[in-house]
Here is the input.
Amino acid sequence: MLLPKRAKYRKWQRLRGSFKGISKGGSTLAFGSYGLKSIEISEVSSRQIEAARRVLAHHVQRAGKIWVRVFPHKPITLKAAEVPMGSGKGNVDRYTVLVKPGTMLFEMDGIEEKVAHDALLLAGHKLPVKTKFVSSKD
Here is the structure.
């Protein structure tokens, strides 16, 4: 799983008002010939990213090259079960990344387009956002 090595602040506020708009950067293919692009807003956890990455690696049988273009750096806290109100903020449970429409999630290169399309389609099923396949030929 992807985790930050260190953070300036251990716990963040959620900032749910930033769940609007489109991606400011990282919306084009930068490394590979094929990619998986999000088309809606959601938070993607480090477990979901790792599950999608494993599907990609398994489907292409470790051929070619895979780039993960997002990194989960936002800590999400949860309070323990049956803890009363007023006892402070909970412990860090997981790390997520805010994905907006247009964000490139994964890129691939060194394999055939059909294999890349099938692999990225399977990886998209592991993520909580709607995604689409993009190619450098488009």
About this structure: The beta strands are 34-38, 42-45, 65-68, 74-78, 91-99, 104-109, 131-135.
